[in-house]
Amino acid sequence: MEQTESKNKWGILLIVLLSTFMSTLDSSIVNVALPKMARELNVTTSSIQMVAISYLIVISGMVLIFGRLGDMYGKTKLFHFGLALFTFGSLLCGVADSFLFLIIARAIQAAGAAGTMANSQGIITEVFPAAERGRALGLSGTAVALGALVGPGLGGLIVGVSRWEFIFLINVPIGFFSFLLGLKLLPKDHGGSRGSLDVAGSILFALTIIPLFTALSEGVRLGFANPLILIGFTVSIVSFILFFSLEKRREHPLIKLEIFENKLFSLSVFCAFLTFVGMFCSNIILPFYLQDVLAYSPQHAGLVLMVYPLVLSVVAPVSGHLSDHIGSELLTFIGLIITSFALFSMSLLAEQSPVYHIVISVATMSVGTGLFQSPNNSLIMSIVPRHQLGIAGSINALVRNIGMVTGIALSTTLLYTLMSLRLGYHVTDYVVGRNDAFIYGMSAVYYVASAIILLGAILTLIRLLKKEKMPKTEQ
Question: What pTM did the predictor assign?
Answer without folding.
Answer: 0.76
